[in-house]
Structure to design on (886 residues):
């Protein structure tokens, strides 16, 4: 039915285009001096037939579900509905929905079956109403546009205004996305903080999000102090940087100063491959190769290495960050003005001394910006740690131990059941909020550092 | 008072002390060079180890051990009126009994495990397709179950003590007899591409994941391509320079650096929570990926638009075209190769993205390929995640194989982008 509705919109647009084109051409052939060329008259009709109908359809699709749900709920018997909370109502509604799809467990109560039947009837009506209304709107646009064809009609200006509107809408999508992220994280986090005190979350040193599902269940009461999770994130980030920084910096210096043009042409794209490998692949690599290798090395040295050691996840993440650091360093070194390099070489410094004592210090602000972006990448990186790091939060900075990270907790808390009314799932949103704020802060600082540095030499 | 000219300091280049300093300085330079080369080598080595270990553990999953045997379709087990309702378990058991006549009924339970659990359904499908087989004998090639597949590929060491082995001596002897009889073959593992997910490694395939990824990328492309181009055209060509457009630009740059898992949270709360869209659907995954791909496409499109020389715009404007006619008629077509290159690279990133898809439930266990973007599905990266978590040995190799397939697609996409750039890049 949805496909048919789309088809109607497309057909109406095509017909409107053709009709107006023919009408405008006829005017032209009769010798009238048109203000706009015929194509714009046709495009005007196309937009008028398609756009309002399409916008209406999207709104209809977004709103009809909740409206039908409310109608079904209001038709339920009084004794069922009175005193039900929002969550209970939603549960009831999804039960009725699955009943309407024919998935019944056992014999449903008669009022539920009746509600399901009503839901089916309402949905059928809604489908026909949608088809009829969309056709009506498209036809109205088509007819109106057809009446506007005249030599004096400023079709080009109209069409261009519509197109400008569409372009503005496109660039607003980015804003909507940010607003959506902030709003959803904020709303769910507030619901979390309504159940778990602010203070406990920020300063608690205990993270045990397992909460009893039933009243009589023996389980932890649930502790939501994020400090151990934060500490774990930092441990893994530090390990990653310890791997990525030296390798990335030194290879960038080599490529920038010493390598032949041929080696550069080969090495840069090869390093970029490391950045293009999906993180889930790195995660599997960490589990398959890195962690067992570290464990064996630990056994050989007589050190006890946990199977989910932070070294495995952090080290693998470091490999992923190498191209990141090296390309930023390369750019920063190349951006140092030629005069500095030439001056140093002219004074008799070797190339190595020029790099180490002149170029590198001059490039440091740009490199720091790149490193900060790498840090924000490492904090937000998800799949490697989900697969290779641990689940249990511990207050430890020993990288041989198993630690957990913010992103691991978000994913493990949200995989599986997602009812939005227990602190366990809401905690994920609170963590997500912190993750968003921290990475945003690091990014802003990094971009500012990079920009300031660019101004220095421009 | 006359000042004597400053005594000219002669540098004695032959001075051994100076020579020693110079040697030390050159040695330091060599060390730096060596360190640089070593770290470059280390980065290359890591890439090599990554690819080599995946290839080494994955290549075996591209073949699958099969056994070719005669299945006796007797009329007691399969009635000609209802071939789809036959007792195919029994058919398989009796056919195996015919190969191993000495095996007792008790041992039969063990023996039956040599064939994949899917064998009975393959026999059923063959018989349903051709009911004339009933009462006769059907020669069919079916996969063996995972442990025997591992044995045939040399993953199970016959030298380990029997208690620690997944297969007993007797089971290995059965398999060797089949092998001696020439019934064992290891053809290309078509199931890897033609089957959807399964609990049994020998039957599990990527069909569902491939379709899921296809639908998600299609939705992602249909949304992010026009919206991204529209936004870029507005910001680059029409937008006045003011506070509002500044905010949009800062916004886009920040979105490009937001962790992917946050987009997953957004999708979970907004698409699933507020709009009640279906869980696990490729459509929702595609919308989420579109939001993530948007900044990439916008940035690439703006760069491509910027690269079109102003003379083109001026010439068109001079001939009386409106600003929009200039952009849509001249600038945009000339910028298209650059835009397409950026789009393909953005889509390649989206194809490998996992975390947001996990949060919207595209890691469900689904045994059939989705028929539309609105049905529950998995995607290639989430399928890799699921298999990496599965305990069966056979899934380890299949995970690597799935990764190789994913990397193959990424290489194809990136190569396309490179070729596109080479072929259509214009120097003005």
């Amino acid at each position: 039915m949805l496909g048919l509705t789309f088809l109607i919109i497309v057909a109406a647009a095509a017909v409107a285009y053709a009709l107006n084109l023919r009408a405008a051409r006829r005017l032209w052939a009769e010798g009238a001096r048109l203000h706009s060329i015929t194509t714009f008259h046709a495009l005007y009709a196309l937009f008028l037939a398609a756009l309002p109908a399409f916008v209406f359809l999207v709104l209809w699709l977004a709103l009809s579900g909740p409206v039908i749900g409310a109608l079904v709920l209001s038709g339920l018997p009084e004794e069922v509905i009175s005193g039900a909370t929002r969550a209970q109502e939603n549960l009831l509604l999804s039960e009725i929905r699955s009943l309407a799809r024919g998935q019944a467990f056992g014999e449903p109560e008669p009022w539920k079956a009746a509600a399901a039947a009503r839901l089916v009837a309402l949905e059928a009506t809604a489908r026909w109403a949608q088809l009829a209304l969309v056709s009506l709107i498209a036809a109205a646009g088509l007819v109106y546009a057809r009446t506007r064809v005249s030599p004096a009609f400023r079709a080009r200006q109209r069409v261009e205004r519509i197109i400008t509107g569409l372009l503005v809408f496109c660039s607003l999508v980015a804003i909507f996305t940010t607003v959506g992220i902030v709003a959803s994280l904020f709303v769910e986090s507030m619901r979390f903080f309504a159940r778990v005190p602010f203070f406990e979350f920020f300063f608690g040193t205990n993270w045990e999000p397992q909460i009893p599902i039933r009243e009589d269940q023996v389980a932890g009461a649930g502790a939501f102090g994020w400090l151990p999770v934060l500490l774990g994130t930092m441990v893994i980030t530090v390990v990653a940087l310890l791997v990525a920084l030296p390798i990335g910096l030194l290879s960038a210096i080599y490529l920038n100063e010493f390598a032949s043009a041929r080696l550069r042409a080969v090495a840069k794209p090869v390093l970029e491959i490391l950045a293009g490998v999906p993180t889930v692949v790195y995660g599997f690599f960490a589990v398959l190769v890195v962690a067992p290798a570290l464990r064996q090395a630990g056994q050989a040295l007589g050190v006890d290495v946990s199977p989910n050691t932070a070294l495995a996840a952090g080290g693998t993440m470091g490999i992923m960050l190498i191209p990141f650091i090296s390309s930023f360093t390369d750019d920063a070194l190349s951006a140092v003005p030629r005069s500095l390099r030439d001056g140093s070489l002219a004074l008799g410094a070797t190339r190595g001394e020029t790099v180490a004592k002149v170029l590198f210090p001059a490039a440091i602000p740009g490199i720091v910006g790149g490193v900060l972006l790498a840090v924000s990448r490492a904090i937000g990186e998800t799949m490697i740690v989900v697969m290779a790091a641990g689940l249990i939060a511990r207050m430890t900075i020993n990288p041989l131990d198993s630690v957990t990270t913010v992103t691991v907790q978000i994913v493990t808390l949200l995989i599986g059941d997602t009812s939005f009314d227990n602190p366990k799932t809401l905690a994920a949103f609170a963590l997500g909020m912190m993750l968003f704020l921290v990475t945003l802060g690091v990014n802003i600082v990094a971009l500012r550092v990079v920009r300031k540095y660019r101004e220095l030499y421009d | 008072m006359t000042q004597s000219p400053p005594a000219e300091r002669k540098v004695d280049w032959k001075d051994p002390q100076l020579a020693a300093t110079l040697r030390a300085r050159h040695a330091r330079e060599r060390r730096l060079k060596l360190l640089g080369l070593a770290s470059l080598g280390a980065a290359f080595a890591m890439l090599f180890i990554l690819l080599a270990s995946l290839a080494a553990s994955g290549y075996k999953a591209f073949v699958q051990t099969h056994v070719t045997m005669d299945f006796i379709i007797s009329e007691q087990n399969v009635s000609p009126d209802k071939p789809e309702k036959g007792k195919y378990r029994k058919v398989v058991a009796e056919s195996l009994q015919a190969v191993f006549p000495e095996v007792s009924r008790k041992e039969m339970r063990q023996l039956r495990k040599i064939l994949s659990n899917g064998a009975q359904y393959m026999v059923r499908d063959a018989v349903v397709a051709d009911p004339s087989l009933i009462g006769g004998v059907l020669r069919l090639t079916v996969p063996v179950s995972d442990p025997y597949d591992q044995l045939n590929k040399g993953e199970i060491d016959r030298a380990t003590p029997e208690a620690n082995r997944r297969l007993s001596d007797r089971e290995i002897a059965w398999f060797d007899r089949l092998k001696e009889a020439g019934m064992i073959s290891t053809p290309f593992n078509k199931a890897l591409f033609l089957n959807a997910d399964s609990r049994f490694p020998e039957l599990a395939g990527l069909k569902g994941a491939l379709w899921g990824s296809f639908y998600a990328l299609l939705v992602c492309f249909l949304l992010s391509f026009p919206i991204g181009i529209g936004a870029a055209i507005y910001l680059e060509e029409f937008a006045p320079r003011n506070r509002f457009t500044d905010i949009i630009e800062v916004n886009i740059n920040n979105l490009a650096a937001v962790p992917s898992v946050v987009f997953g949270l957004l999708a979970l709360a907004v698409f699933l929570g507020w709009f009640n869209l279906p869980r696990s659907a490729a459509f929702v995954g595609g919308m989420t990926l579109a939001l993530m791909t948007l900044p990439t496409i916008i940035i690439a499109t703006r760069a491509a638009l910027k690269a079109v020389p102003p003379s083109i715009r001026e010439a068109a404007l001079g001939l009386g075209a409106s600003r929009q006619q200039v952009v849509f008629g001249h600038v945009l077509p000339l910028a298209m190769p650059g835009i397409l290159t950026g789009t393909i690279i953005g889509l390649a990133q989206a194809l490998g993205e996992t975390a947001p898809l996990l949060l919207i439930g595209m890691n469900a266990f689904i045994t059939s390929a989705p028929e539309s973007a609105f049905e529950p599905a998995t995607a290639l990266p989430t399928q890799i995640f699921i298999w990496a978590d599965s305990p069966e040995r056979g899934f380890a190799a299949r995970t690597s194989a799935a990764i190789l397939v994913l990397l193959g697609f990424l290489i194809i996409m990136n190569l396309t982008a490179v070729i596109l750039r080479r072929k259509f890049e214009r120097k003005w």
